[in-house]
C-alpha cells in the first residue's frame, strides 16, 4: 500500500465502511475510519446491482479518508458468500533436500494446494463454467510433516511436507461488480478475501479453533457462516437471508418506506419503549417497541432456522457455541431463535463486538459494534498474505488470476477454460482392413500442434506470467482419418483374354470388398474385407459378357397336373465340361453347349439307381432286376423313361411299389429276346439249378439259367 498505509473497504448491502491503518510494531494501528449508508437499495444479497450508486458512496468515503491520511490508490476488499463454492484440496512437497523449512516453503505449499483446488473445480462439473469462478480466499486445515500433523512447518526438518486447505470460490459477476465499482473511483483492488474469512481471523484466533465454534456474520443481504473444529477452520457457507428480511417485514406490516422501516428496526434494541414513525399514507404512529417486535417474531424464527440448517449441514451436529457479528446480529431475539433451532442453551449464542482485537490497536468506540468486526478483519488481512490479482488477457478475453506466487501460462489457460490437451492436435483415426486374409492397419495423419504467443513470441505452458501479459492461443488441429483407394492396398489382377462362343474378349478379373464387386478407385472403410486373389471365374466372365446363365423351361401335363422342368445350360472350357466356379486363364475358349430336350425319366424323377434293384445271376452273369415297376404313357401311348419328353405332351405315370420280380423280369432285365431263338429248339429254365416256369418269383441272390437244345 502507498506509504505503507493499509486501506480496507467493507462494501456491505446497507453501508460502506472504510478503514485506514498502518503497520507498526507487528500490529496495525488504526488511523482513520468512515461509514456511509447507500442512498438506495443499490445492493441486494451482497451483490452490487447499481455500480454507479455504489461508486458514489465509495467516492465519498474515500474522499473523507484521504482528507485525513492522504492519497489512497490501493484497497483491500471482501466479498459476501453469495453462490459460494467450497473445495477441500491437498498438496505435498519433497523437503528432504531443503534443510530447515522457511515461511516461503510454507507459502509455496499453500499456493500449490490452491492450484490443486482450481484444477479440481475446472474438471469436477460442480459449476457450469469453472472459468467464471474466482478463488476469493482459503484457510489452512492442517499441515503435516512425514505424515504427522503439525501446527506450522517453519523451522522444521523432514522428508515430505503436506497441507490441506479449504479454498472458496465465487462467481465472476460478484467479483467483477466489486472491481468495477472500485475502479470507477480510481482504486486498484490489491487483495480480496471472503467476509467470513476476514471476520474469523480477528474474532477466533488459532488458540480458540480447537473448539467447535460457529461464526455467523449476519449482514443486510446475506448471513455468512464459518466453522472451526480440531484446531482449524473446517467449512464456510452462506444463507441468502439476513437483516433486510426483517426490515421488509416491518415495511409490509406497517406500510413504511424501506429506509424508514430500517430506522425503526435499528431502534428496537434501544431504550425507547415507544417508537414514532410516519407511514406511506402520511399518517403518524407511536407504537410500543414490543408491538413491532411481535410483528417480526415469525420472520426472526425463520431467519434463525435458515442459519441453523446451514450450520448443521456443514458441521453435521450442533456446535459448542455460536458467535454473531454484523449489523443483523442486533435483531431482537435472533440469538434465542438460533439457539432454539440448534437445540443448544441460549447462553451459547452470543453477539460479539470488537472491544479488543489481537493485532489491531486504536479502535475507537464507534467501531466497537458487531458490524465493525468484518471491516477490521479485512484491514488485518490487508497487511498479511491475502490473495491479490494479476490481470491477463487470453484471446482478447480479460482474465484476473490470483497471484499464486509463480503464475504460469498453464494457469491462465486453466482459468480461461481452455483444455490444454486441445493444444496438441490428436492424430486421425486409423483404419483396419483385411486383404486376402491378411490384416493391415493404415494410420491417420498426425495432428498439427497449436501455439501460444505472449505478445509475438512463442511460449511454453511453464512460462512465468506477469501482470498485463497478453496471450494468443491457437488450438491444435486434429489429424484426419485415411481414405485409401482399393488400388492403393492391393495390386489389381491383370486382364484375361478369352474366347466365348467364337468371339474374343478382354476381361478384368473381379476384386470384391465385403463380398461385393468393387472398382479400383473405391474408397475403403474401416474393417473392410478385400479379396483380390481368386481370379476370374466362369460365372463372373459370363456375367461381364451379358451371358448370365438362364434356364430353359419345359412345360408338361403329368397325371393331369401342369409341371415345369428347367434345364440349365452347360459350358465347356477348352472342350472340357466346366462348372461355373472354374477359374479362367488367358487363351481359354468357352463354349455354350446345345442341350437335348429332357427325357421322360428326368422329368418324372425316375432314377433306376435309387430304386434298389435285386441282384440275380443270369447264365452266370450278374444282372440287376428292379423291384419298382413304372408304366409310362405319352399322349396315350406307352413309352420308356429313356425317351425324350415331347414339349407340352400329356404324360401318365403308374408306379408299382414293392413289386416281386418274376423269371420273365429277369429275362427282360438281361435283354433276352425270345425272337432270337432257332425255329426248332427247346428252352429249359432253371432256378437255382431246378426247372421252373416264366412266372416263378425270384429274390436277391438267385441264379437263373436258360438252356437251349434242338428238338
TrEMBL record:
InterPro entries per UniProt: ATPase_NBD, FtsA/MreB, SHS2_FtsA
Pfam families: FtsA
Boundaries of every SHS2 domain copy: 6-203
Keywords: Cell cycle, Cell division
Superkingdom of origin: Bacteria
Keyword Cell cycle carried by entry: yes
Any Gene Ontology biological process: cell division
UniProt-listed PANTHER family: CELL DIVISION PROTEIN FTSA-RELATED, ETHANOLAMINE UTILIZATION PROTEIN EUTJ
Protein name: Cell division protein FtsA
Taxonomic source organism: Sporomusa malonica
Amino acid at each position: 500500500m502507498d506509504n505503507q498505509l493499509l486501506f480496507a473497504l467493507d462494501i456491505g448491502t446497507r453501508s460502506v465502511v472504510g478503514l485506514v491503518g498502518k503497520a507498526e510494531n507487528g500490529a496495525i494501528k488504526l488511523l482513520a475510519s468512515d461509514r456511509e449508508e447507500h442512498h438506495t437499495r443499490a445492493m441486494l444479497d451482497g451483490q452490487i446491482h447499481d455500480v454507479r450508486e455504489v461508486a458514489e458512496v465509495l467516492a465519498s468515503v474515500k474522499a473523507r479518508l484521504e482528507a485525513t491520511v492522504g492519497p489512497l490508490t490501493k484497497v483491500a476488499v471482501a466479498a459476501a458468500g453469495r453462490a459460494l463454492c467450497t473445495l477441500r484440496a491437498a498438496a505435498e512437497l519433497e523437503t528432504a533436500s531443503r534443510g530447515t523449512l522457511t515461511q516461503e516453503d510454507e507459502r509455496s505449499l499453500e499456493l500449490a494446494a490452491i492450484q490443486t483446488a482450481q484444477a479440481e473445480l475446472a474438471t469436477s462439473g460442480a459449476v457450469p463454467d469453472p472459468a467464471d469462478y474466482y478463488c476469493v480466499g482459503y484457510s489452512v486445515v492442517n499441515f503435516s510433516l512425514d505424515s504427522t500433523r503439525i501446527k506450522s512447518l517453519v523451522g522444521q526438518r523432514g522428508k515430505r511436507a503436506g497441507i490441506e486447505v479449504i479454498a472458496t470460490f465465487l462467481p465472476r459477476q460478484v467479483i467483477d461488480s466489486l472491481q468495477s465499482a472500485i475502479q470507477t473511483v480510481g482504486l486498484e483492488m490489491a487483495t480480496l478475501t471472503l467476509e467470513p474469512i476476514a471476520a474469523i481471523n480477528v474474532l477466533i484466533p488459532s488458540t480458540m479453533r480447537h473448539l467447535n465454534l460457529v461464526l455467523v456474520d449476519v449482514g443486510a443481504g446475506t448471513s455468512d457462516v464459518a466453522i472451526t473444529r480440531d484446531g482449524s477452520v473446517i467449512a464456510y457457507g452462506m444463507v441468502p437471508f439476513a437483516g433486510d428480511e426483517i426490515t421488509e417485514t416491518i415495511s409490509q406490516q406497517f406500510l413504511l418506506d424501506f429506509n424508514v422501516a430500517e430506522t425503526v428496526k435499528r431502534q428496537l434494541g434501544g431504550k425507547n419503549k415507544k417508537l414514532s414513525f410516519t407511514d406511506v399514507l402520511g399518517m403518524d404512529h407511536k407504537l410500543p417497541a414490543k408491538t413491532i417486535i411481535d410483528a417480526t417474531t415469525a420472520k426472526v424464527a425463520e431467519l434463525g432456522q435458515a442459519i441453523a440448517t446451514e450450520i448443521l449441514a456443514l458441521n453435521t451436529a450442533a456446535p459448542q457455541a455460536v458467535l454473531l457479528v454484523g449489523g443483523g446480529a442486533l435483531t431482537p431475539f435472533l440469538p434465542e431463535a438460533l439457539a432454539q433451532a440448534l437445540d443448544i442453551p441460549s447462553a451459547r449464542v452470543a453477539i460479539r463486538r470488537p472491544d479488543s482485537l489481537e493485532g489491531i490497536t486504536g479502535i475507537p468506540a464507534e467501531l466497537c459494534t458487531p458490524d465493525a468486526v468484518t471491516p477490521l478483519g479485512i484491514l488485518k488481512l490487508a497487511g498479511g498474505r491475502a490473495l491479490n490479482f494479476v490481470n491477463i488477457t487470453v484471446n482478447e478475453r480479460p482474465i484476473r488470476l490470483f497471484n499464486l506466487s509463480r503464475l504460469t501460462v498453464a494457469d491462465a489457460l486453466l482459468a480461461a477454460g481452455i483444455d490444454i490437451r486441445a493444444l496438441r492436435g490428436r492424430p486421425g483415426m486409423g483404419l483396419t482392413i483385411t486383404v486376402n486374409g491378411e490384416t493391415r492397419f493404415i494410420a491417420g495423419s498426425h495432428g498439427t500442434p497449436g501455439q501460444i504467443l505472449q505478445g509475438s513470441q512463442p511460449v511454453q505452458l511453464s512460462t512465468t506470467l506477469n501482470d498485463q501479459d497478453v496471450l494468443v492461443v491457437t488450438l491444435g488441429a486434429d489429424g484426419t482419418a485415411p481414405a485409401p483407394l482399393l488400388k492403393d492396398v492391393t495390386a489389381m489382377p491383370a486382364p484375361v483374354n478369352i474366347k466365348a462362343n467364337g468371339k474374343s474378349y478382354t476381361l478384368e478379373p473381379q476384386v470384391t470388398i465385403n463380398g461385393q464387386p468393387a472398382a479400383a478407385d473405391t474408397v475403403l472403410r474401416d474393417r473392410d474385407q478385400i479379396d483380390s486373389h481368386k481370379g476370374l471365374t466362369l460365372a463372373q466372365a459370363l456375367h461381364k459378357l451379358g451371358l448370365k446363365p438362364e434356364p430353359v423351361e419345359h412345360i408338361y401335363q403329368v397325371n393331369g397336373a401342369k409341371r415345369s422342368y428347367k434345364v440349365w445350360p452347360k459350358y465347356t472350357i477348352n472342350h472340357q465340361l466346366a462348372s461355373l466356379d472354374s477359374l479362367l486363364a488367358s487363351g481359354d475358349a468357352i463354349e455354350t453347349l446345345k442341350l437335348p430336350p429332357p427325357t421322360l425319366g428326368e422329368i418324372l424323377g425316375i432314377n433306376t439307381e435309387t430304386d434298389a434293384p435285386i441282384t440275380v445271376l443270369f447264365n452266370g452273369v450278374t444282372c440287376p432286376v428292379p423291384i419298382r415297376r413304372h408304366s409310362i404313357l405319352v399322349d396315350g401311348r406307352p413309352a420308356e423313361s429313356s425317351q425324350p419328353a415331347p414339349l407340352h405332351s400329356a404324360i401318365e405315370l403308374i408306379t408299382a411299389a414293392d413289386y416281386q420280380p418274376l423269371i420273365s423280369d429277369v429275362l427282360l432285365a438281361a435283354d433276352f429276346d425270345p425272337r432270337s431263338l432257332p425255329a426248332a429248339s427247346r428252352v429249359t429254365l432253371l432256378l437255382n439249378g431246378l426247372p421252373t416256369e416264366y412266372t416263378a418269383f425270384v429274390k436277391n441272390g438267385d441264379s437263373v439259367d436258360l438252356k437251349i437244345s434242338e428238338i
